[in-house]
Amino acid sequence: MKTPRSLVPPALTRWRPATPYVLDTALAALVLFAVSLQWMFPDEGDDPLSWQGWLLGAATAVPLIWRRRTPCATACAVSLATPAQALYHAPPPDVMYGGMVVLYTMAAQTRPVQRRLMLTGWILGVVITMQHQSNQQPFEYAFHLMGLVSAYALGVLTRVQRAYTAELEDRAGRLERERTADTARARAEERARIARDMHDILAHAVSLMVVQAEAGPVVVRKDPDRAEATFDTIASTGREAMEQLRRILGVLKEELPPDGQPVSRLPQPSVTALPELVRQVRQSTGLHAELRTSGTPRPLSSDTEVAAYRVVQEALTNTVKHARASRALVELDWADDHVSLTVTDDGRGPSAGPGGHGLIGIRERAVACGGSAETGGAPGGGFRVAVRLPVAGDREGALG
């Protein structure tokens, strides 16, 4: 939200708060000049003049130098000098310049009780003082009273405008802080998502490559043809990992490769790629991996599609790296409002401790999609990862 543009130039706005005495001194000098006009042009008026009257008039102007630092004391000083000048009558004040300035200042800066008492006192003082003077016309009452009330009203408007502007600036500051916090939170979430993707991609690819590389020397001596297929698998696994990493890095930084063509934005893996993932693990590692599907497939959001694939990928990677298992079963169960993914192996089961980054990433992916995840020992031995993710319609309804 933008604050209203001020009519005062920015340079003057920056300079004014730093030099209040300079402006207030100039204002006091201007009021003193207006009060002294009767002495500058004495032939134009019939009122008697004296240097004591000029001093009383000066007393209504000089205190204005401190009007913003000590508004109440300034108002009291001017409030005493003005009726004294009017009663001294040499000359009486034609216009109560000082009174209008202090009433404006009181209305703009002081507490309600103070400014209301000051306004009431000035109105009563004007009425009482003028009643003790002769040859006063009715329009003079209205002139003086309207001048005081107008100055007070202008001060009230100034105070309200300042409060409104301060509220707008405070609201704009809060919105800016909230926007900054939201941006930082979004960046943190994006970094966490990218870290999970890179972990899943590298852990899966490196695990398969290590298993193949360890079996390579044995296969080379016994079955050269199979050894060639093993090395081809290592190369294809590495190329696939590089392609997925290039895709993620391309999201982080838009740039052109040396050939001038834009970075390829291949689609993210989804549930439909799970059979190929299971087949790749089975062929590359010798683990007897199997995929079973039940129910009618339902539409998933793009984030949930990627999460489902990465969860199975990470679970199979953990099985290959840590479980020492011979079998792994991937179950995909479709329901009306969710899909359940379960990966079970017959390995050595859970180890002590909270689990590594892979299991933490599985839980984070599930929660980010509005689902849940459970990891731990399988009933018949081994390890089990169970994830429940909402289908597209159910998640949209929950968010709405």
Automatic annotation (TrEMBL):
<dbReference type="GO" id="GO:0000155">
    <property type="term" value="F:phosphorelay sensor kinase activity"/>
</dbReference>
<dbReference type="InterPro" id="IPR036890">
    <property type="entry name" value="HATPase_C_sf"/>
</dbReference>
<dbReference type="Pfam" id="PF07730">
    <property type="entry name" value="HisKA_3"/>
</dbReference>
<dbReference type="GO" id="GO:0005524">
    <property type="term" value="F:ATP binding"/>
</dbReference>
<dbReference type="InterPro" id="IPR003594">
    <property type="entry name" value="HATPase_dom"/>
</dbReference>
<dbReference type="InterPro" id="IPR011712">
    <property type="entry name" value="Sig_transdc_His_kin_sub3_dim/P"/>
</dbReference>
<keyword id="KW-0547">Nucleotide-binding</keyword>
<dbReference type="GO" id="GO:0016020">
    <property type="term" value="C:membrane"/>
</dbReference>
<protein>
    <recommendedName>
        <fullName>histidine kinase</fullName>
        <ecNumber>2.7.13.3</ecNumber>
    </recommendedName>
</protein>
<keyword id="KW-0597">Phosphoprotein</keyword>
<dbReference type="Pfam" id="PF02518">
    <property type="entry name" value="HATPase_c"/>
</dbReference>
<keyword id="KW-0808">Transferase</keyword>
<dbReference type="InterPro" id="IPR050482">
    <property type="entry name" value="Sensor_HK_TwoCompSys"/>
</dbReference>
<dbReference type="InterPro" id="IPR055558">
    <property type="entry name" value="DUF7134"/>
</dbReference>
<keyword id="KW-0902">Two-component regulatory system</keyword>
<feature type="domain" description="Histidine kinase/HSP90-like ATPase">
    <location>
        <begin position="303"/>
        <end position="393"/>
    </location>
</feature>
<keyword id="KW-0067">ATP-binding</keyword>
<dbReference type="GO" id="GO:0046983">
    <property type="term" value="F:protein dimerization activity"/>
</dbReference>
<dbReference type="Pfam" id="PF23539">
    <property type="entry name" value="DUF7134"/>
</dbReference>
<keyword id="KW-0418">Kinase</keyword>
